[in-house]
Amino acid sequence: MTLLRTPVSLVVVVVASLLLLGGCATRTINPPLSRYEETSTDQFEGLEMKRGAHQDLVILAFSGGGMRAAAFSYGVLETLRRIELVTREGRTVRLLDQVDLITGVSGGSFTALAYGLYGDKLFAEYEQRFLKRNVQGELVGRILNPLNWSALLSTGWGRSELAANLYDEILFNGATFADLERLAGPTIAVSATELASGSRVVFIPQNFDVMCADLRTFRLARAAAASSAVPVVLSPITINNYGGTCGYREPAWLRLFTDSAKPPRPAGRILKRVQELRELDDAVEDRYFHLVDGGISDNLGLRGVLDHLETFEALRAAGRPTPLDYIRRIIVFVVNSVSLPSTSWNMSEESPSTLTSLTKAAGVPIDRYASESVELLKDIDARWAAQREIRDSIAFAKDKDPKLAYLVNAPNADIYTIDVSFEALKDKSERDFLNQLPTSFVLSAEAVDRLRAAAARLILESPDFRQVLKDTGAHIVGPPPSGAQPTN
C-alpha cells in the first residue's frame, strides 16, 4: 500500500510514534568550577609556552572555510611533518615538532583539535574518517530522520548538538579537553563567537575560568560544532555561565594594566580583550551563552596571536619579565583558506536571490577584511624593528629620560609571517580551481588532495619561509612532499 492510499489518521499515528521513539533530548551541561585557583601570574590565553624555553616560537593559525579549510590546514601539518631541519646545534628535528600554538576557527578547528588529540596518528586516519567523507550528507540525513525530530525541538538542543554527536562518532570518540591537557603536543586554541555580544570565546582554561566553568569535561566535538555553527544553517551551541561564583581574579600581571590610570599604549589591545571577557563573568545577568561560528569574530584565528604579541610588548614596556623574553624569532604560518569565487551577478540586471544575498552578506565582511589581521601582524614586526634601531643608534640612560624607557625594553624578537593562502599561488588555473570550492562539509577526493598539495607548495615557495631557513641556519633534509616541488 502506498503512502497516498494510507489513511491520514494512520500517517499521524506513525509520525507520532516515531517522535515518541525519538524522545526529548537534553544538551550536555558544562559543569562549574568549584573554586578558581590561579596557577601562574603570567598565564593568559596561551601566553605561556607548553614546550618550555627555546629561541623560536612557532604558531599555526587555521582559518575557517568548512571542509576546504580542514583539508588545507591538514596539508600544512603534512608538510611541516615531512620537513626536517638541522639546527645550529646539529640536532635534526621535524618542523612540526617545533610548533607551540595552533589556533583554529570553524573548519580549521577540526584539524587543530584532531591533531591535538591524535598527534602523528592523525596522518593515518584523518582522510578516511573526516576529509574524504560526506560529513554534510550524513548530518542532513540525521536532521531529516524522524527519529531525531523531537530531539531537535527540545529546549537548548538543536542541529549543532546533532552535529556534535556525529563529529564524536566519526572523529573525536568522546574526547574532552582533559585529554588534550594530558598530551605533550602544542597548545590548541579554537574559538567560537558569543551571539549576543559578538565576543570571542576561546576554548582554553583562561577563558572558561572567567565564566567559572570547567573546560576539562567539555567535549572536543561540541567545541568544533560551536566553532563551525554557521548562523541560520546551524543552531548555536548553548553553554552555562557560572561567572562570579568561584572567586575568579584576573592574573596579577594583568592588574598592572587594569589598575593603572595610564597604561602603556601597547596594552590597548589586551585591555579591549579584558573588557570582552568581563562581559562573560556575570551569571546573574547572563545565565547562558549561545555560541556560533568563530569566523564571525576572527576568521583567520589571528586575533589571539595579536593579543599575545602586544601583551608581550606592553609587559616589556613596563619593565616586567614575560614568558617570551628569551624568544628570538616568532614564526607564524597564516593558513588562510578564504576563497574568492567568481560570479556573473554584475553582468545581470536581476539581483541575486534573497537566500544568496543573505549568505553572501554574512561572508563578505569576514572574508574581505581577514587580511587586515595579517597586515597588523606585519605592523607589529615593523614597529619592534624600528624601536630596536632607534635604541641601538642613540645613547641614553633609562633613569635620565623615562620617556625613552620603552626603547630600552623593545622586544628583541623578529616576526616572520608565512602566507599560506590561495592568493599567493603562482598557478592561476590552480588558484581559480581552489577559489571555486564551496564552503561546505563535503568535497571530492580530488579537491581534498589538491588543497593538500597547494598548502605544501605555498610553504616551500614562500620567500618568508626561505628567510626563516636562512636566519636559523637550518635546511630541509630529504625530498619535499610529493607534488609540492618549489618552482624557480
Percent helix, as a range, is 40-55%
Number of strands: 11
Spatial separation of the terminal alpha carbons: 69 Å
Oligomer: single chain
Strand content: 5-15%
Poorly predicted spans: 1-6, 10-22
Structural class category: alpha/beta
Reported for the largest beta sheet, the result is:
8 strands, mixed
Mean pLDDT: 82
How large is the count of helical segments?
A: 20
| Large-scale geometry | globular
In angstroms, what is the radius of gyration? 24 Å
Written account of the structure:
The chain has 488 residues and is an alpha/beta fold. The chain is built from 20 helices and eleven strands. It has helices at 8-22, 66-82, 107-118, 122-131, 135-144, 149-152, 159-172, 177-181, 205-210, 220-227, 252-258, 268-278, 295-298, 303-317, 354-368, 371-393, 405-408, 428-435, 445-461, 463-472, and strands spanning 56-62, 84-86, 92-94, 99-105, 187-194, 200-202, 237-240, 288-292, 329-336, 414-421, 476-477. The strands form two sheets. Strands 1, 4, 5, 6, 7, 8, 9 and 10 form an eight-stranded mixed sheet that branches. 43% of the residues are buried.
Please specify the SSE layout and strand pairing:
Blueprint (H helix, E strand, L loop, with lengths): L7 H15 L33 E7 L3 H17 L1 E3 L5 E3 L4 E7 L1 H12 L3 H10 L3 H10 L4 H4 L6 H14 L4 H5 L5 E8 L5 E3 L2 H6 L9 H8 L9 E4 L11 H7 L9 H11 L9 E5 L2 H4 L4 H15 L11 E8 L17 H15 L2 H23 L11 H4 L5 E8 L6 H8 L9 H17 L1 H10 L3 E2 L11
Parallel strand pairs: 1-4, 1-9, 4-5, 9-10
Antiparallel strand pairs: 2-3, 2-11, 5-6, 5-8, 7-8
Helix pairs in contact: 2-3, 2-19, 3-10, 5-7, 7-10, 12-14, 14-16
